[in-house]
Specification:
Layout: H1 17-20, H2 30-44, E1 57-62, E2 65-73, E3 84-90, H3 102-110, E4 113-118, H4 148-163, E5 173-183, H5 185-193, E6 201-205, E7 235-239, H6 247-256, E8 262-267, H7 282-297, H8 300-303, H9 312-315, E9 319-324
Helix pairs in contact: 3-7, 4-5
């Protein structure tokens, strides 16, 4: 990978880079706010995509799990003997819009997973209303409205549903197949939750940790490098190349992790925005599905995307790969 100087502050909030790079300042410029508003409106108009898996997916809010959005196969009866793996996802910028990565999450769900993100449906089909107002002069990227505790409560809810004979999810969930993931700031939330012994793998998307004490007080980002020592599962880092604002921090994370297998892949040229808003979540979502199928289901075909010098991602010109303990 190419070397580059670290930015003055590698803020990883999951929205527009200009807004993120001003995180320590009291506000952002009118031009940045206008650009952010335009992008948000464009994404709001995008339809949902059902995913490419065997189980076309939908998203919904559920009364028994308030302030969360659930992504699942539309027809649970179509699962047959397939058990749902769990994929808990921290939103970019740690916002309260549980639909902010909806195309990615619908793709995951279509492959037989129960994906859950904190917040409400605040964009796209089924939106329950506009996002909460952002303080004047502040970027929505800095308007944190979710917590890592939301991911933990989603795990608790799913396990309780699996044990409840009255639930549609009764005995449909593989309680030993739990992954935590997150985009940018949401990755920091996932890193904190990854210490939970119920978690079997961690997926860090366009995310990396600050040095201890260097998060500048950004809510939910105060997860220092010491968290890496608590990892007990294989980890998949997925970045957007050296233009990704999280690139420097993720490189440092990778260098420090020694006790668990770690696969570090950069999808070249996409930057911090990733492929979340491409149909079915783009190449990044496809790679995550393969990782989950390998780590949570023991799928040997999926493993070939990651194992060996000639692995699928290793030989693809779209990716740059490093790994430890994977082969």
């Amino acid at each position: 990978m190419h070397k580059r100087a670290a930015p003055a502050i590698a803020v990883i909030c999951g929205a527009l880079l200009p807004a993120m790079l001003t995180a320590q300042q009291p506000g952002v410029t009118p031009a940045q706010l206008a650009q952010e508003t335009q992008l948000r409106e464009q994404r709001n108009r995008l339809p949902d995509t059902p995913g490419t898996g065997r189980f076309p997916a939908l998203k919904e809010e559920i009364s028994s799990l308030p302030e969360h959005v659930v992504y699942r196969p539309a027809q649970l009866s179509s699962l047959g003997a397939t058990k749902l793996g769990l994929y808990l996802f921290g939103n970019g910028a740690c916002v309260g819009d549980g639909a902010s990565s909806r195309l990615h999450l619908l793709e995951i769900a279509s492959h037989g997973y129960l994906a859950i993100a904190p917040g409400r449906i605040l964009n796209g089909p089924g939106a329950s209303g506009p996002p909460p107002p952002v303080p004047a002069g502040q970027s929505a990227a800095l308007n944190v409205r979710s917590s890592y505790k939301d991911l933990l409560s989603a795990i608790d809810w799913a396990l309780a549903q699996n044990a409840d004979p009255e639930s549609a999810y009764y005995r449909r969930i593989d309680t030993a197949a739990i992954a935590v993931s997150g985009y940018s700031c949401g990755g920091a939330q996932a890193m904190r939750v990854a210490a939970d012994p119920r978690v079997k793998t961690l997926v860090m998307m366009n995310s990396g940790l600050f040095d201890d004490g260097a998060s500048a007080g950004i809510p939910e980002m105060d997860v220092g490098k010491s968290a890496l020592k608590r990892l007990h599962t294989p980890v998949f880092y997925l970045l957007g190349g050296d233009t990704d604002v999280a690139w420097v921090n993720a490189n440092d994370d990778f260098a420090r992790i020694a006790q668990v297998p770690v696969f570090y892949a950069n999808l070249l040229g996409v930057g911090h925005a990733g492929t979340y808003w491409e149909p079915n979540g783009g190449k990044a979502a496809a790679a995550v599905v393969a990782w989950l199928d390998w780590q949570l289901r023991g799928d040997g075909r999926a493993a070939r995307q990651f194992v060996g010098k000639d692995c699928g991602l290793c030989t693809s010109k779209a990716w740059s790969v490093q790994k430890k303990g994977v082969d």
